[in-house]
Amino acid sequence: MSNPFKNIQGETAWRAPSNIALVKYWGKYGIQLPKNASISFTLNNAFTETSVKYVAKTTDDKQLDINFFFEGQENPKFADKIQKFLESIIPHFPFLPYFSLEINSSNSFPHSTGIASSASSMAALALCLTDIENALDGGLRPHEFFEKASMIARLGSGSACRSLFPYLSVWGKHTTIPFSSNEHGIPFHDTVHPVFKTFKDAILIVSSDEKSVSSRAGHALMDGNPFAESRYQQAETHLTNLVGYLKDGNLDKFGEIVENEALTLHALMMCSTPSYMLMLPNTLKIIDLIKNYRSEKGVPLYFTLDAGPNVHLLYPEENAAEVETFIRESLLMYCEQGKVIYDQVGKGPVKIK
Ligand code: 2P0
Questions:
Q1: Residues 80-101, buried b or exposed e (16+ Cβ, 10 A)?
Q2: Is the Cβ–Cβ distance between 43 and 345 less than 8 Å?
Q3: Ligand 1 center to residue 337 CA distance, Å?
Q4: Is the C-beta atom of 172 inside 6 A of ligand 1?
Q5: Quick check: 61 and 253 in contact, CB under 8 A?
Q6: What is the pLDDT of residues 250-308, one digit of tens each?
Q7: In this predicted structure, what is the pLDDT of residue 73?
């Protein structure tokens, strides 16, 4: 073959944040399509930076040629995952086999904190690849660019497709949300009260051990879960109601739904077959202390959980000083080596090169 991209080379780099779901995605079908719509806060301080250098090949070799470095080092486990992912998306990016790629990726947070990096890392990589395609072919308008990058990120890790947009993102078709789609995330902040656009998220690290059951396996167990259908209906109702509370700035009702979603997610794990538990005793201790603090002090502090034992504390910026005192004095003792990551709602990905 003669390489249609002969002599072309370049580099792109993107920073993409992590996200935390308020209404959870748990259960999927087909190729990474969600059984229910979910909504998340886009975070700010927990992010991945990825750069991709691309040089047109001079040989006829049609195998993917990828060199992958994580935090400056070769990492065979991650490289293997990236290789398989890139092979799977050649139909979306037919240019890939014509280039040698060098991918460098690093996280703002230590790898061993128990913070899932798949959302930010897949989002950053998807942005780089979509950017390269745009540089080669051109023609994507800004909203099309982010839509395509979100769709590609989804194929890498479902929740990653929500890491592409400022403040909040919805992923999954929902009856009351225009333009919502199972294929990709959409931005969702036009009808959101300003209090939520500066919301804080303090992530208490209860344990950084690798999870006993991966999210991939957890999603799969929803297929045999006797509560699956009623769960998907509940998520639909939760999202309808949450959209209203986000608009009105109703903190109490926001917290009620968000906490219920976190506990429902873990209840679904407990009633799967085989059943499993990712919360630890200190997770429950922290939840209990948060509830007591809220009812005693009247401070709008709420919790949510990802698929793991760590606790995300959500609170308005104006309550940051008192909540962070409470965290230091009463909660850090239940964390692994007193670890906490202070984050907040952020403005979404940025191009850094
Ligand atoms: C979410 N989580 O909405 C839910 C709630 C964790 C708890 O989606 O198999 O890494 O790659 O689609 O996105 C974590 O699972 O799973 C997740 P895959 P993903 O954020």
A1: ebbeebbeebeeebebbbbbbb
A2: yes
A3: 26
A4: no
A5: no
A6: 999 999 999 999 999 999 999 999 999 999 999 999 999 999 999 999 999 999 999 99
A7: 96
Ligand 1 centroid vs 219 CA: distance in angstroms? 8
Q: For residue 57, how many other CB atoms are within 10 A of its CB?
A: 18
Can you give the pLDDT at residue 112?
64
Q: Which amino acid is at 316?
A: P
Query: Which ligand 1 atom is nearest residue 25's CA?
Result: 3
162 ligand 1 Cβ < 6 A: no
The structure tokens 């195998």 sit at 63
Q: For residue 216, report the distance from its CA to the centre of ligand 1, in Å.
A: 8
Question: Does residue 274 have a cis peptide bond before it, meaning omega lies within 30 degrees of 0?
Answer: yes
Residue nearest to atom 12 of ligand 1 (CA): 158
Pocket of ligand 1 contains residue 215 by CB under 6 Å: yes
Non-local CB neighbours of 30 within 8 Å, separated by 6+ positions: none
**Number of CB atoms found within 10 A of residue 51's CB:** 18
For residue 18, which of 116, 105, 104, 111 has the smallest C-alpha distance?
116
Only one residue has tokens 């073959």, namely: 1
Q: Is 24 in the pocket of ligand 1 (CB under 6 A)?
A: yes
Nearest to 307 by CA among 248, 264, 252, 245: 264
Model-level pTM?
0.97
> Is residue 171 in contact with ligand 1, taking CB distance under 6 Å?
no
Q: Tokens 């229910």 correspond to what residue?
A: 36
Task: Give every residue of the chain whose pLDDT is below 50, as ranges.
Answer: none
What pLDDT does 1 receive? Answer: 59
How far is residue 146's CA from residue 140's CA, in Å, rounded to a whole number?
Answer: 9
pLDDT at 132: 98
Beta bridge partners of 204: 311, 340
